[in-house]
Input
Amino acid sequence: MPKSRRKAIFKGILQMNFTSVRRFAPVRSALVALAALGLASCGINSVPAAEENAKAKWADVQAAFQERANLVPNLAEVAAGAAEQERGILTDVMEARARATSVQLSADDLNDPEKMAQFQAAQSQLGAGLGRLLASFEAYPDLKSIANYQMLQSQLEGQENRIRITLRDYNEAVRVYNTTIRTFPDTIGANLIHGAEPMVPYEATTPGAEAAPTLDMTPNTDTTPGS
Amino acid sequence: MRAPALVLIFLAPVALSGCDESVDPLGLFPEPTRAENAPLELTGRVVDASDLIPDLIEADLTTQLAEIERDTKAQFVVVTTSSLEGLTIQDYGLRLGRGWGLGDKERNDGLLLIVAPNEQKVRIEVGYGLEKSLPDDRCGEFIEMMLPSFRDGDYVAGIENGVDLLDRELRTKLGKTT
Output
């Protein structure tokens, strides 16, 4: 509806209202219709759109974490040639992986801070374990020369980066959603129609804890450990 | 009898402000996501911001990159930068890729080779759509193959080698071979 026309209608109703409320019974229904029209415009589409977007981004997060978990068994092969100590870390990592894959967070629970905290804790533990394992592998020059290990390292490194990106995108989508449901006028629709609750962003307990530290592909000659 | 009038007066501004056509009356668009601004301007297929590549070679590379796009559709841009502006090269690369909107929107097949001589970093940034053709381990190998030239300070040879490697790989996986 063109703005001018709508304004004209408003004007008409308002004038009628001031001058002749009693004579015009339809005013009441017009009022209801007007209120409905007004409210219908306020967040009826933007709220679910923002919600769907955040949920889709969460699906990306889960896929990225899952892919990391899928890479872990390949580490077992590499660790077979390593010393006792590394096998101990590997056992920890495998356990952390089992926990991380068992703690799932469905898109409908994204407004539950407790469930989100559990999910984060499980993933952080796996990330930290992987970081420790890779760091300990650095002490084995033989290991580093194995093509399989290098391949795995690039894959893990790439995956950690992908996880970081999906998390950032998810957090941004949550910010947009949370702002939408709290900002007038969308908040009217968000509260009255959708019963929208804010979503929880993914915040690592320690910065970067969700992702294992990565080794840069730095074109430096001094890449020997300890130097 | 006064009540409806009052309510109406209260409601009118609600309705009006909520549904002003200039600000998305039907609530079709949620709040926009923050734009990721590219830290460099996209000046061509070779963005030699740190001035490492001689003009003639830059022209050759530009031709090669155009041929890659013609044959494989992948949009490949080579970047040299004098500063990562305090970002990791991963984040820097992501900002360039997203900020420039490389690759087809549906196929998401942008590709970046980024060289930061001052930070001594090099990275191959792969659009989602090319991840199957250029998986992480393969890109890791390519980087390894480029590193010797970079270590010798021969950035141009390293970049040419990298572009050739990616060129061949893309053609093998996606398109016509020359």
User: Anything to note?
Assistant: Chain B has a mean pLDDT of 85. Residues 155-174 of chain B form the longest helix (20 residues).
